[in-house]
Amino acid sequence: MTLSYKGTISIFALLICVSSAQLIYLSLPSSSSITTLNHRQYRQDIDAFIDAIKQHSAFAAMEPERVTAITEASHALLQSATNSNDAARLELQLLQLLSQLNDPGASAQRPINGVYDTNRQLQLPIEIRFDGQYWHAFYQDGAMLEPDFPYLTHIDGLPMIRWVEASQGYLADSIKLSTQAQSTWIRQIARLRLDIGLSDRDETLITLSNGEANLQYPLKLTRNQRHAAKVTPLEANALEANSLEANSLEASKPQGVVRLSTNIDLTTITELSKQLAQLSTEHGSPLIIDIRAIKQPQPLLMAWLFSQFSQQNKPQSIGLLQYKRFATSRADQLPRHYIPMSKLSFFEQAALNNQGFDTRKGPTSAFSDYLVRRYNPRVDDKSQQQTHRLSLLVDSSCELECEWIALASLQWPSVELIGETTRGSLSPRYHVTLPNSGIEVQFSKAVVYAPSGQLISGIGLGPAIQLNQLDFEDNNIAELIAAKRLDRSLAPLKGTVAIVSPAKR
């Protein structure tokens, strides 16, 4: 049979399509390579993980003995590995190894069929909060699960302290005692069950108490991680209609609370200025801004903060950073807003020395030269800090840009941090995907210091006024903060001996 020219072209096109489909199929990771690893694959992933830690982890470079401990622990894992190893178990093992780095920016997450899926793990369908003494259970809309039984005492028959201890095994030292970080992990009940040794199922039984009687409450676990903004501290309420209504200055609520979203535009800045001016003029009260959701640099917000609260209209060094050296590191890989200390003017270097940082420090075998993040005010910036005061809400979810803002605020006398100690994770992250399981690992590739020379990475910034988790969700949080501020100001009068008030931080 003789094919026509058109038929030949059609068959040729069909063959190309079939070949392309086969190539696409072969390029997709097989489910077995994601969910189950043989011993060789398991070893390859562990070796890639250890190599990345040694090459790029700033926390490993700070304390080499931690790398030794992690390497020894990984050898023990390899010895106990079989020819069929669960990738989900490997993910947990890597998380436990990463916790030994004391790096609050470290994480490990396993994709499903090549897709980064954060909803795959069964989780508690409720929010849990700690009030400083007891745990409580809430619906996602903020309503208490059982008002007559307010205390959450057990999950799956185990007391809450057991779940807290299990969660701490995955947390860096700077956030081990953070109830916000603990509650985030406890909600990931499927992971902790695997660690504790409990059977995996799609339901749980929690125990509620009122101090005299107990109530058994069954719950169906969920894969949905989308929570109501009212009760989720990691998600910010954008400065939109609902926030503006909450910030309307009523006579009964002289203080406003603004919860910022991840993106700040000119409309947001205009509204912030309006709120600040109105509060300062009518009440003399500080504006309260929740900055916990901010992760990426926000030039408009930083410019506004400096113009309103910085003491002087000249460049300010916010903090200093040192990158972990590695074989292929290059200066052009560094973010543009970090500059070498040698490029600071004589007066800027002198200012750093006056704050406590030794500008004579240089690079080491493990770390680069010091790089400085600074803010250079615009010509039209007008400082008005003489009449304005500001409170910034932070907790252990405050990291990256949120924490840089908090660090900058230490130099502004009219600004104070309120809430919980920040995460201690300001530096850029290094990312690596393990070859067989596809687990994505990230950790800090630099460490950050305050202008005083104090290490901030892995430590965090403490607040001037402490709040617990329930305080953050209190509808009267402004009045609560005012009361705590008043208690703090009256504290020196309680004794008969004069007490010198501590510094701002």
TrEMBL record:
Protein name as annotated: Tail specific protease domain-containing protein
Lineage, highest ranks first: Bacteria, Pseudomonadati, Pseudomonadota, Gammaproteobacteria, Alteromonadales
